[in-house]
Amino acid sequence: MNKKYSSVYVSLILLLVIISVSFSPVIKCEFVNLDDNLMVTENTKIISLSFQSIKNMFTTFHYGLYHPLVLLSYAIEYKFFGLNPHVYHTTNLILHLFNCILVFWLFYLLSKKLAVAFIVSILFGIHPIHVESVAWVSERKDVLYSLFFLGSIICYLYYIMNSSYHKKNLIIKYYILSFVLFLLSLLSKPMAMTLPVVLLLIDYLLNRIIDKKTIYEKIPFFVLSVIFGIITIFAQYPTEAIRRTHTFAISNILNGTSGLIFYLIKLFIPTKLSVIYPNPVKAGGIWNTITIFSPVIIIVLILLIFMTIKYTKKIVFGTLFFFITILPVLQIIPVGRDIPADRYTYIPAIGLFYIFAEWFVYARGQQNRFMTIFRKPVSDIIFIILIIVCSYMTYNRSKVWKDSMTLFNDVLKNYGNFYNSNLAYNNRGIVYANKGEYEKAIEDQTQALKIDPNFAGAYLNRALAYANKGDYEKAIDDYNKALEIDPNYTDAYLNRGLAYFAKHEYDKAIADYTQAIKLNPNYAKPYNNRGNVYTRLEEYDKAIADYNEAIRIDPNLADAYYNRGNAYGHKGNYEQAIIEYTQALKINPNFAGAYNNRGVAYFMLNQNEKAVQDLLKVKQLGYNIDEQFLKMIQQSLPK
């Protein structure tokens, strides 16, 4: 084997081993109650791989986001592995490893230096700030869009390389491939829309002449960016993720500049990392000073960078790569929550890692006395120590993502005294509620409300805890408070309806479900729940009409098929009831209630053998059944 390629393969193997060990705790992590329920565990869009389901992924928004390829990846995992969290985490890690290979490949092509490629890719691979993107199942968006983003850049490089040799077939092939990969990247996360500008940066670094040709060849990329930018606005506007303001305030500038400094600090000093940070503008303390002077600091840094242009394009390229790719999330245009997040640095950090790698390799070869410390073997020792420290920090940071409790305990340990720790208390309260520890859940939600008395979500979650304790009056009081804060809070109406249903106040329950439907006509659950009220009132035709609508909106809502089966059963139409229960079981093969009720329907049709099979399946799933009823049916079977 060629010595050159041998060194490349050894470097790649070493790279993958170090990264795999550093992130190994991720594989054993569970889902967390921070969007994983919306994206995976309660997401009915992923439980089928039918043509209609895939079409639905590509033609609808999902909680203010458009990322159909991410949903498709979840659906494939669900098809073969169900809701095994370790599979989803392993997929994220594998995607991250592929991204590290692509980073290595990209910078080997750009720099022609094995050392530079290795340094950039190992820092990208094991930097602790990237744990969030890898360990969080819901952030599949990051690792998936990056895979196609990096692949698109590499294909563009091959397009440039073949252009110089006038190889027309290869030129067209790599150009089209780069464009297709860019499209796939945008279908994974709209943050990829910065790629056309990155391609211009590549031109700059490689000394390509910026003329009509280089501009024209980017036009399809820019057009695609604009299209997906518009799609993103349409997706987020109804959720108010893009805050509806018509003025541009000084706070927008401070958000951007202080956020930029925040990310720089965390990249160079990755301590007290967290899934929830306070906004630097509102954090107080030393951040007040940093925020006020952040525009000046950024201007000074920009001037220093421009002073280096005549010496090296590499610093300019790396800096602009970082700034351009992180620009969409600097909150200059307010989008989503106005707080920074580790995941936003996943691709942008590559630019800074490249500057460090080029400088380190350059310093390592210098003979002057100022660079003595960076000469061999001292430089090698320094670099090994850096790798060990980063790997150790990443390993420990990965363990924080073990489950929801460890995650939010970590937030409260680091930032429990800040104004937005209410989010962590709220989410930890949900963890306690899911474990049946309702008193602790109520304590955490109450603490969240002390920090932010206008936190409608905390009132909702405290109400759910009260309802689970059977204290429906307190639950309704909290739902009322949530609705005072947010009169359009659909889930508050939905869950208050459940409380009224439990209290047998059916008219009020119907009114709440009807209001939820008015607020969100494309929400299946209010139709399903209103159907349950009509079933209780023995108005079966109205119930079936509501279940029909719920299923039209969400064809994968197993509960709606189950409930429609119950309504048909009450009407004596057991054949149709069996069809409904069977459909519910196709969607959820472990739906014990559907097996039980289908068994009863089979019994009513004198199909006792099938009835016994279904009732035994209920027992197999770990649920209690009427043993006398089962025994009676078994005795009726022929010997």
Task: Give a verbal description of the structure.
The chain is an all-alpha fold. It has a domain at 421-521: Serine Threonine Protein Phosphatase 5, Tetratricopeptide repeat. The protein has 31 helices and no strands. Helix 3 runs antiparallel to helix 4 (68-81), helix 8 (140-164) crosses helix 10 (195-205) and helix 29 runs antiparallel to helix 30. 45% of the residues are buried.
Give a short account of the largest sheet.
Answer: none
* Unreliable stretches: 242-247
CATH architecture of the domain at 421-521: Alpha Horseshoe
* Residue fraction in strands: under 5%
How many DSSP H or I helices?
Answer: 31
Brief summary:
70% of the residues lie in helices and 0% in strands. By secondary structure, it is mainly α.
